[in-house]
Write a structure and sequence with these properties.
TIM Barrel, 8-stranded parallel β-barrel, 16 helices
């Protein structure tokens, strides 16, 4: 149904949510989320796993069969094809994320650039991969970004260090090379948010790329973390700049990923915390950001990247109220692979453009990502419980259906 006010979407429908999973896979997910329900286990596990991986002990197989299988698309780009094909059958698209983090050195940055371009070229051959995701920290030294962040008002953002100016130019060249191929292949590039103390140069670089590549259509997207109290204002400011400079804005809206780190650093360094006072303030700004983007949907392309059912429902309702198509080219929904299938698959069933954010990479490289998923699921209030209750509900539904089938099977039919 296109536009109008009828909404027959329900995030409680587990039949839609888990249609793509076998009983065995569901039971595996149930075991994993049950384990994540014990915060002490997660704390010990997240500290030990990176260390144990280095020792060469045979844990690779255990990780691959459990947490890796739940949250990651595969170790290589080619391995993601199987997951991508399954999702595609249910009308779910894919955001590919080459999940390598924290590797420093010019050689690593150049290699990551080549990999991102390879991912774009691959995405262009598939029917359901409209976007790829990249981190500027995959292309630039963390210390360089921090230097730039602390000196944002100087010309080019750097003190007169020839070396650093040349280094920043190389970062811009890498980003340009990635966005140029993406524009040619019509694949969107989602630039991830980072910690607040390196975010300013990331924002400026992203705006620079938008100005070049978002003239005709939206290729480049920035990401704003709305647990920061200044980001709703930043969204509006970005929109003003886009209008002045004559380009379209691409915005991915997330709640945020570095809260504990942000708060403790602010205390340690003695500056005001950039984080909202409470969750209610984050929710309020997140929903206000959705409404702002949909109000300006002709100039802003928005990705609602959220596991919050109310926010997803709000975006869906606003589209309906305005009589906009569920497949409007400027709105897209997304959830992480392995989480919130009840949101993703029910949105897809109702005709919305929705994707799974699908990381891939060698197990040892995606360990930081996996540890964040484990921590998030054990610390985000109610997340593990919600995942678990939906999985249990679906297993019970399937069991009930089997019981009915056996019950209604008459002796005559077996002749």
């Amino acid at each position: 149904m296109e536009g109008g006010s009828n909404m027959n979407i329900s995030f409680d429908n587990t039949e839609n949510a888990f249609a793509y999973k076998s009983d065995k896979e569901l039971k595996g997910a149930k075991f994993l989320f049950t384990t994540m329900g014990f915060p002490w286990f997660v704390q010990v596990g997240t500290r030990l796993t990176p260390f144990v991986m280095k020792t060469g002990l045979p844990v690779h197989g255990i990780i691959r069969k459990t947490i890796f299988k739940q949250f990651v698309g595969g170790e290589s780009l080619e391995e993601t094809a199987a997951v991508g094909n399954i999702l595609g059958k249910y009308g779910v698209q894919v955001i590919l994320d080459y999940g390598v983090e924290g590797k420093e050195g010019e050689g690593s940055f150049d290699h990551a650039t080549d990999e991102f371009i390879r991912v774009i070229n691959y995405a262009a051959t598939q029917t359901n991969i409209p976007f790829i995701s990249i981190k500027v920290t995959g292309l630039a030294r963390f210390g360089l970004l921090q230097t730039l962040n602390e000196a944002p008002r100087l010309r080019s953002g750097i003190h007169d260090h020839e070396e650093e100016i040349a280094e920043w130019d190389r970062v811009r060249e890498r980003m340009y090379a990635i966005c140029e191929v993406a524009a040619q292949k019509n694949i969107g590039v989602l630039i991830d948010a980072e910690e607040s103390w390196i975010q300013d140069p990331v924002d400026r670089l992203t705006m620079e790329m938008m100005e070049i590549f978002n003239k005709e259509k939206v290729i480049v997207f920035n990401t704003i973390q709305l647990y920061r109290h200044d980001r709703l204002h930043f969204l509006k400011l970005s929109h003003t700049i886009a209008k002045q400079q004559g380009f379209m804005l691409g915005m991915k809206l997330v709640r945020g990923a570095y809260m504990e780190k942000e708060r403790s650093r602010a205390v340690e360094k003695g500056y005001p915390s950039p984080i909202q006072a409470d969750k209610a303030a984050t929710d309020r700004d997140y929903d206000a950001a959705i409404a702002y983007c949909i109000d300006h949907i002709e100039q802003i392309s928005v990705i609602v990247a959220s596991h919050n059912e109310k926010s997803n429902l709000l975006a869906a309702q606003l589209l309906n109220e305005k009589g906009l198509s569920h497949k409007h080219p400027h709105i897209h929904f997304s959830q992480l692979y392995g989480m919130s299938d009840n949101i993703t698959f029910n949105l897809a069933k109702d005709g919305f453009a929705v994707s799974k954010y699908l990381p891939f990479g060698p197990i040892r490289d995606v360990i930081p990502y996996l540890m964040r998923r484990a921590q998030e699921n054990s610390s985000v209030s109610g997340q593990t419980g919600r995942e678990l209750s939906l999985i249990k509900k679906e297993l019970a539904r399937r069991k009930g259906r089997e019981g009915k089938a056996i019950h209604s099977f008459s002796p005559q039919e077996s002749q």
